[in-house]
Amino acid sequence: MSMEITNVTEYEAIAKQKLPKMVFDYYASGADDQWTLKDNREAFSRILFRPRILIDVTRIDMTTTVLGYKISMPIMIAPTAMQKMAHPEGEYATARAASAAGTIMTLSSWATSSVEEVASTGPGIRFFQLYVYKDRNVVAQLVRRAERAGFKAIALTVDTPRLGRREADIKNRFTLPPFLTLKNFEGLDLGKMDKADDSGLASYVAGQIDRSLSWKDVKWLQTITTMPILVKGVLTAEDTRLAVQAGAAGIIVSNHGARQLDYVPATISALEEVVKAAQGRVPVFLDGGVRRGTDVFKALALGASGIFIGRPVVFSLAAEGEAGVRKVLQMLRDEFELTMTLSGCTSLKEITRNHIVTEGDRLRPMPRL
Predict the structure, then answer these.
(1) Does residue 320 contact residue 327 with C-beta atoms inside 8 Å?
(2) What pLDDT score was predicted for residue 366?
(3) For residues 308 and 286, what is the distance between their CA atoms, to the nearest angstrom?
(4) What are the φ/ψ torsions at residue 110 (nearest 5 degrees)?
(5) Cα 187 to Cα 116: distance, rounded to the nearest angstrom
(6) Which of 183, 256, 326, 327 is catalytic?
(7) Strand, coil or helix: what is 73?
(8) Known binder of ligand: residue 108?
(9) Which residues contact 266 (CB under 8 A, 6 or more apart)?
(10) Terminus-to-terminus CA distance in the chain, angstroms?
(11) Which residue positions in the chain have pLDDT lower than 70?
């Protein structure tokens, strides 16, 4: 099957065929009208290249460092929940694929494999995505376990005081299949999700996740762990400045895969505002809508230090397990390398704002050069 796959997007159709409707819809859908879901992709298509020619591109260096860890490329794996719904090996397969590609995997709080189980797959640089539960002992325990299991950073999700309205999940009465648990919470009696009249996950979040979460809690987290904290879910300059003030080690520009508040801008559209506000004090990353190596280049040209992919991981996992995730990472890597080559950039630091032209640039043609 993998013979005819030539790009990342093709995995979605295969996943749709293979997965139960409830599961595919859960992975694929966005909030409300799914306007942002569409725009996360389409906003990339409104950015054009200004390639430079006649540069020696014999050797292309895609390596970079993230929070001091060297990785093979600025393409990393975003946290996506409940991966064993996609494939029996779930997060194990994803962890092995990330490690083989020499990049970072972020494990979801709501993984169907525990931090210890993922650590047991072998070496690799791994981050832990954290939801803050009402019971802070649960949070402290989980953070300690992640740290003990060798995780290197926390990606604190800040855009989910309640779950966004995902109509597919309401229609399907989404719940975690009975043979699976949220493994990190199993021993705490929070591993199961009750059936509900709407989305079982929405009910679970309403019951367990702390809506009072605020900037003081970002400070509190720093008192219980030595892991650096990435604030995931920032879309504005104002919140960027507050995140830096609160001691965040980095920022992930994210709209939660367009699954929370609909009609927020595409992440690639919000990126430059955040980068400017960060003033180089912390690295800024992006997730949402990245499906091509050209998208990766555009994000870096706008100031991102790297990107994370989410849905391509679960769709390729559903289609071909670990081999699928490896293939997605390889295809994005190859496309990104080709984009750099044809743009005249031999290393990441050579990718500049002048290599692209955005819609904004076209509206106000600035003599930027």
Answers:
(1) yes
(2) 62
(3) 6
(4) -95, 35
(5) 13
(6) 256
(7) coil
(8) yes
(9) 36, 39, 40, 41, 42, 43, 44, 255, 288, 289
(10) 47
(11) 1-3, 189, 365-369
Query: What is the rounded distance in angstroms from the CA atom of residue 176 to the CA atom of residue 300?
Result: 36
Q: Which residues pair with 359 in a beta bridge?
A: none
Catalytic annotation present for 355: no
**Which residue type does 6 have?**
T
Would you say 157 is a known binding-site residue?
yes
The identity of residue 84, as a single letter, is K
Query: Distance between CA atoms of 70 and 213, rounded to whole angstroms?
Result: 32
Q: Please, which residues have CB within 8 angstroms of residue 363's CB and are 6 or more apart in sequence?
A: none
Indicate the helix (H) or strand (E) that contains 326. Answer: helix 311-343
Residue 232 annotated as lining a ligand binding site = yes
Cβ burial 214-253 (10 Å sphere, 16+ → b, else e): ebebbeebbeebebbbbbbbbbebebbebbbebebbbbbb
Could you tell me what percent of the chain has a pLDDT over 70? 97
- Confirm whether residue 52 is marked as ligand binding: no
The two structure tokens encoding residue 147: 């740290």
The amino acid that residue 10 corresponds to is E
Residue 368, annotated ligand binder? no
Question: Which residues neighbour 288 within 8 Å (Cβ) at sequence distance 6 or greater?
Answer: 40, 253, 254, 255, 257, 258, 266, 267, 268, 310
285, two tokens: 């990353």
Write the pLDDT tens digit of every residue in 124-155.
999 999 999 999 999 999 999 999 999 999 99
Question: Checking DSSP bridges between strand 250-253 and strand 64-66, what pairing results, if any?
Answer: unpaired
pLDDT in tens, 281-315: 999 999 999 999 999 999 999 999 999 999 999 99
